[in-house]
Specification:
Elements: H1 2-58, H2 66-75, H3 77-95, H4 108-112, H5 114-122, H6 124-150, H7 156-174, H8 203-217, H9 221-240, H10 246-270, H11 282-285
Helix pairs in contact: 6-7, 6-8, 7-8, 7-10, 8-9, 8-10
C-alpha cells in the first residue's frame, strides 16, 4: 500500500515537474517572441524615423541659407513683388464688403473714365465719330489677320482668331453679363446696327493683340506699335462708352496672347512634310503641309 502511494506521488511529482518545464519553456519562448517583436517594432520605428529624417533633409527649403534668401531677393525681384501683391490682395479680398445683388457692379475703369463718359453722353456726334473710327480699326484687324493666310500663306493669326472667337462665344453665352449702366451705343459701332453682343471677353482687344503679335514676328515693328496705340485708344473708348467692363478688356489681352500661342503649337504639331509634285497644286490645297510652317512661328 505504501509502495503504491509512493509510486503515485512519484508520478504526480514527475507530471508536475514536466508541466513546470513546459510552462517555463513556453514562457521563455513567449518572452523570446516578445523580445523579437519589440526589436522588430523598434527597428521599424527607427527605420521610419530615419526615412522621415532623410525626407525632411531632402526638402528644398531645409537647405536654404541666409545667402540663398538674399540671392532670391536680389536676382528675382519680380516674383518677390508678386508675392507681396498676393498677400496684399488676399487682405483686400477678405475684408472688402461684397457688392449686393441689387447694386450695379463696381468697375474701376468706369470710375477712371467718368469724365469722358459725361463728354460722350453730351455729344452724340462725337460718340458716333469715335465709334466709326473704332469700326475702321476693327476692319483693319480683320483684313490683316485674314490676309496673313490668304495672301502670305501664314495661317497662325487666322487660326488664333478662330480659336479666340469660338471660346469667346462659349464663355459669352455661358455667363451673360448685364449691359453696364450708362451704355452709349451707336449704329456705326461694331457690330454695326446696335445688335446684341457678348460682353466677356472683348473680341476687339483680343483680335488687335493677335494682329500685333504677328506683326512683331514678321519684324513689322512700326505697324505693331501703331496697332498697340490704336488698341489703347480703343480700350479707353470702350470703357468711356460703357461698352465693356474692365475685366472684359483685360482678359481680351490675355486671350489674344493665349490663342496666338496655342495656334503656333497647333501648326508646329500638325506640320507634315509629304512629297509634293512641284508641277501640281498640292501645296495650295492644304496650308498645314507647307514647309514654311514647320516651326510654328508663322
Amino acid at each position: 500500500m505504501n509502495g503504491d502511494t509512493l509510486n503515485h506521488r512519484s508520478s504526480v511529482l514527475h507530471t508536475n515537474t514536466t508541466n513546470l518545464k513546459d510552462h517555463t519553456l513556453a514562457k521563455s519562448t513567449l518572452e523570446k517572441a516578445c523580445t523579437k517583436s519589440n526589436a522588430s517594432s523598434l527597428w521599424l520605428r527607427q527605420s521610419w524615423v530615419d526615412e522621415l529624417r532623410w525626407r525632411v533633409g531632402e526638402v528644398s527649403f531645409m537647405k536654404w541659407t541666409a545667402d540663398d534668401v538674399s540671392a532670391v531677393l536680389k536676382c528675382h525681384p519680380i516674383p518677390c513683388l508678386l508675392a507681396v501683391f498676393l498677400l496684399f490682395f488676399m487682405r483686400v479680398e477678405y475684408t472688402l464688403p461684397m457688392i449686393p445683388p441689387s447694386s450695379p457692379p463696381f468697375d474701376i475703369g468706369f470710375v477712371a473714365t467718368v469724365h469722358l463718359h459725361r463728354i460722350l453722353s453730351g455729344s452724340p456726334v462725337l460718340n458716333t465719330i469715335l465709334a466709326g473710327l473704332n469700326t475702321v480699326f476693327v476692319g483693319m484687324q480683320t483684313v490683316y489677320i485674314i490676309g496673313t493666310w490668304v495672301v502670305e500663306g501664314r495661317p497662325r493669326a487666322t487660326i488664333a482668331a478662330l480659336l479666340m472667337f469660338t471660346f469667346r462665344g462659349i464663355l459669352g453665352y455661358s455667363t451673360q453679363l448685364p449691359l453696364p449702366q450708362g451704355f452709349l451705343g451707336s449704329g456705326v459701332d461694331f457690330p454695326v446696327g446696335n445688335v446684341s453682343f457678348f460682353l466677356f471677353y472683348s473680341g476687339h482687344v483680343a483680335a488687335s493683340v493677335i494682329a500685333s503679335l504677328d506683326m512683331r514676328r514678321m519684324q513689322r515693328s512700326e505697324l505693331a506699335i501703331l496697332f498697340d496705340i490704336f488698341n489703347v485708344l480703343q480700350f479707353v473708348r470702350l470703357l468711356s462708352t460703357r461698352g465693356h467692363y474692365t475685366i472684359d478688356l483685360v482678359v481680351g489681352i490675355g486671350a489674344g496672347m493665349l490663342f496666338d500661342s496655342i495656334a503656333g503649337k497647333y501648326i508646329h504639331k500638325s506640320h507634315k512634310t509629304p512629297t509634293i509634285d512641284p508641277n501640281s497644286n498640292g501645296d495650295r490645297k492644304a496650308f498645314l503641309v507647307s514647309p514654311k510652317l514647320g516651326n510654328g512661328t508663322q
